[in-house]
Amino acid sequence: TCWDSVRNTGARNFLRDGMQVGDLAFYYHSNAEPSAIVGICEVVRAGYPDHTAFDPTHPYHDPDSNPEAPTGYMVDVRAVDALVRPVTLPALKAE
Predict the structure, then answer these.
(1) Strand order through the sheet with 73-88
(2) Maximum distance among all alpha carbons in the chain?
(3) CB under 8 Å to 18, separation ≥6 — which residues?
(4) Cα angle at 37 between 87 and 44, to 5 degrees?
(5) How does pLDDT run across 27-72, given as a tens digit for each residue?
């Protein structure tokens, strides 16, 4: 699947420039209560422009983005493994 709709500039830059095919990443539920890492995924396509930024019907549409100079980037990932126990944000901060 694609990892789209990232609008934080630091994270966007990492999707665009830092993540490469074969890299592993945590699958993190940021909108859960509490937020938690729930699995491992692998990058199967390196960064490319996020088409959701150009779609005015999409919740994460960015009217300042255009295909010639995109403001959003995304990567494609595949699931590798689910964690037996989610690692919550409070647990991460405690460590």
Answers:
(1) 2-3, 73-88, 36-49, 24-29
(2) 43
(3) none
(4) 150
(5) 998 888 889 999 999 999 999 999 999 999 999 899 988 889 888 9
